[in-house]
Every structure is written in structure tokens, then in C-alpha cells.
Design goal:
The complex is a heterodimer of chains A (389) and B (89). Chain A is an alpha/beta fold. Chain A has 15 helices and 10 strands. In chain A, helix 1 packs parallel to helix 2 and helix 2 runs parallel beside helix 3. The chains are: A alpha/beta (389), B alpha+beta (89). At the A-B interface, strand 1 of A face strand 1, strand 2 and strand 3 of B. Chain B: One of its GO terms (biological process) is pyrroloquinoline quinone biosynthetic process.
Amino acid sequence: MTTSVNPGSGREPAPPGALLAELTHACPLHCPYCSNPLELARRSTELSTDEWTDVLRQAGEMGVVHTPLSGGEPLLRPDLERIVAAAEGAGIYTQLVTSGTGLDEARLAALTAAGLRSVQLSVQHADPRAADRIAGRPASFAAKERAAALVRRAGLPLGLNVVLHRDNLDAVDALIELGVAWGADRIELANTQFYGWGLLNRAALLPTRDQLARARETVERRREQLAGRIDLVWVVPDYFDGVAKPCMGGWGAVSLTVTPDGTVLPCPAAASLPDLDPPTVRDHPLAWIWEHSAAFNRFRGTEWMTGPCRSCARREEDFGGCRCQAFALTGDAARTDPACALSPDHHLVREPADAGRSEPPPYVYRRPGAVPAPAPPSPPVPTAVAAEG
Amino acid sequence: MPRTVAPWRPALAPALMLRHDAVRGRDLLVLPERVVVLEGHGGTVVGLCDGTRTVEGIVGELADRFPGAPVADTVPAFLDSLRQEGWLT
């Protein structure tokens, strides 16, 4: 009597089932793999409580049933309880995606009372010092441990989300053990996706093939042991596997992202596409954006495909991979994702993946202003006026 | 004296939300990381799992509501399968 949700295949796009709400780009952590854009939205441009309430009402009417409340750190929004209540009122299941910093018993009680259903907590490493170094914040690990205990005590399901890279892949076993000790229902072991800050820090984060092989073995072994108790999810390292990921389940197919300032994107990384001209909830109804905006129709279906994707048997399975990765590596968002072994650009992921650096560069931590913004056009330099003449 | 085992009174696990999806005209179980479609009368059955009714009670109510349907054969197995998934407690 059950099936999984599939996108429709009619002419009108099937309605979205999920809306990723990036409530703020402010964050107490500074993780170098963050997939937020390098140009972080300022707090002064963030949507108001009323604007989020209206977005969630529209989303519920369109058929959205699930909303991860993310960021940045969503707990930095003082109106988070009201946003949760708005989602609940719209019939939308909410999950808090948090660093754990700033969660205390009273806050969690208020969120739960407003209708919060589950929590996903990020973890950087099983060793507190290593974790704090990766997060770029002292005592952040201790805050996570407290947050996990609070979530368990409140009876909410707890997922741990670990972004994997060269500095924590060797600790996968300890990370899984940590999840067991903290009472997690699910542990997502997600190999770094190289967008935004992650791409900027790629040389520091890329693991070796040996590290990956060992971690994969560990996960398989622990998955058997933990079957029925903890859901262990391994998100593939697409630079290494030669297979493009079915990014977002297809462009504008099942999910949309609303960024802190109300920009609506088919995928959280799509802000990086320079000519996408994404619509905003401040200008258009969400349903129009989903169905009719140029941005959401740009890579829908398979018509836009180029190169090996056009005749590929997998084109309805991986949708050509990731548009943002194609753009980031080739400069053309319509090319086959270079992660695919069939891509003519596959060397663009193979070469860095095989480089196996012994001396990785230091992290560029995620902070506003850490990367110089593109310089504004310089004013014309006044030329000296000849005094004689 | 043999101990009596309290009969199971199925209840939806706290992490889950059962809701009707008016846009797609179907019943859904929404979980932390996924959405499951309840086909046929699956949503009606789960809707009765409020922790007060026994399996027998649920079957009885459904038999009254859907005369002639093979509820006594199918419903207990369906409830068991949801319990196996951890969706009913």
C-alpha cells in the first residue's frame, strides 16, 4: 500500500514536494566546505516573518509537504518559532537543520510547541578538537553534544549530517560510533560536494582514493551491524565514482530553494549561474515561479541536453548530472556534468581527484568578506589637464 | 496463572505526519527525510492508529465502513509492515 513519490511526466510540471528554506546566511560556524554562495546574503536583505509566512502558505497550496529549515544557522532567526508555526499551519512537515549552537531547552520546547517535527545536526569530526578546527569555532563540538541530548530528550528524531573530506574520512568509524552514542536515528555521511566555499577549498578537502576506499568499507560493515537501528546514508563522492549524481531529482522537478533574501532557485547552488536571473518571491507568486519562470524551465526535461547526454540511456535517471557543477568547471551550464565518465570534460574532475596532495593548502574559512568581492568598475582616472596650451 | 499480554494499540510514531495531499489527491506519510504515498485506503487505516484502538478494533471499524472488503485478511499484515518500518509503535 505504499510507493515512493515520483515527479509527474505531464506537460505542466508536477508540483514540488519539498522547499528548502535558507532562512539566513549568518552562521556561528565557518566550515570551509559550506555550499552557500561566496557572496553571502546580508541580514538586512532577509525576508521578514510575514514574507516567510506567505511563502510557506503558497508552498502548502502548491503541494509542498516537507521543508528543511536551513541556513546558515536558522536558530539565529529570532522568529524561527513563528516560521515553524507558519509551516505547520500550511500542512508542511518541518525539519531543523542546525549546527546546534544556540539550541537550549527553552528554545527547543518553543520550537516543538510550534510544530517542529525533527532535527538534523551537523557534525564535523568525532574528536572535539578536530571538529572545532574544521568548524572554525571553539567549543562548537560541545554545543552539538548538548543539542543532541536535548533533541533526544524532547523525543524528536535526530539525524546527524557529516560532510566528509580528507580531514575526517579516516574517522568515519568513530563518527558512526558517535551517532550511536548520541542516539541518532540516521547518520548521513555526505562526501563534499564542490560548490561555493567547498569549491574554493577543493584542494584542501579532496581526499585520496585510499581514504575513500577504507571509509566505504567501514560504512558497509557498520551498515550491516546497525541494520534496523540506524539508517546509514553514504552520499557518493562524485569526483571519484565517474557517475554524475541525479542532482535535485532533476531541475525544477521535485524541489525548490528559497534563499534568505527571497530568491527562488531550482537548487541551492544555482545562485552561481551568472545568467540565470532567478526570480524572487518579492516580485512573483511562487506558483508562477515554479511553472512559468525562465529560470525553472531552463533545464527542465531533456530537451536542453548536449553532448553524450542527448542519447544516453541514463538521461532520465541522472538528468545530465549537476548544472552548477557543469558551469563551475566548464563555464557552460548546459554541458554534461564533468563528474560523468562519459563527459568530454571528465579530466576536469579526474585530475584534481588523482592529484593526492601531501601538503594541502590551509582552509579559507567561510566568513563574509573572506573572499574579495568582484571589484566595482574603477572610476575613470582624471587625466592631467595640460596647463599650457 | 499465565500473564496476559496487552493487545497492541497501534499509534503513529512521533516523527511522522499523516496528511491528505489535496493537490495530488492522496494520503501521505511524511518522514524526516522522505515522503511515502499511502495507496488505496492506506491513509484511512493509518488514520485509525491513534493509540486507543486495538488491531481488532481497527479491523472491526473498517469492516463496518467497507462491507465485503477483505479487511480481516489484509489490514493486520499492513499494520505489521508499518511497524516493521518503525512508522507505527
